[in-house]
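wait is this the right file?? whatever heres the structure
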């Protein structure tokens, strides 16, 4: 699930971090997910078993908040629950279609912290450890 990251490389070099920080902030703002009230971890696809397990391990409040953010974003975009785009004659569910949230409801940069990624990394580390233990070969010492 986790892709290679240059984060540690960049953080260890202060000059590179100073150069990349404004670029990263601009990119996160230009991506537009915050204007829909989403966090970065809300964009992680749920098609992976690791992600599904991480979603099951989320605290109930965090899982509820995630579903609320996703449903609100779908309503803002004008997407019905069944996945079809709204038409001009659609129900009131699509009344906010193709508009962004007001500024006070948009996700602020300080509120956009990872909540799912640490759980995914924990699951991947546990899976790697389990695979290493299963692949381990035990050699018995011969008695003299």
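ok assuming it is, sequence goes like this
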């Amino acid at each position: 699930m986790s892709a290679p990251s240059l984060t540690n490389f960049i953080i260890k070099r202060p000059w590179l971090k100073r150069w990349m920080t404004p670029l990263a902030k601009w990119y996160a703002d230009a991506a537009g997910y915050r204007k829909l009230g989403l966090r970065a971890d809300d964009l992680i696809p749920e098609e992976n078993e690791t992600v599904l397990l991480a979603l099951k391990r989320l605290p109930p409040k965090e899982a509820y908040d995630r579903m609320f953010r996703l449903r609100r974003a779908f309503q803002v975009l004008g997407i019905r629950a069944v996945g079809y785009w709204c038409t001009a004659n659609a129900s009131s569910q699509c009344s906010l279609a193709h508009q962004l949230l007001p500024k006070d409801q948009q996700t602020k940069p300080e509120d956009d912290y990872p909540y799912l990624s640490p759980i995914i990394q924990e699951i991947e580390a546990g899976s790697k450890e389990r695979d290493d233990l299963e692949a381990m070969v035990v050699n018995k010492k011969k008695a003299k």
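The longest helix spans residues 117-135. so i think its the right one actually
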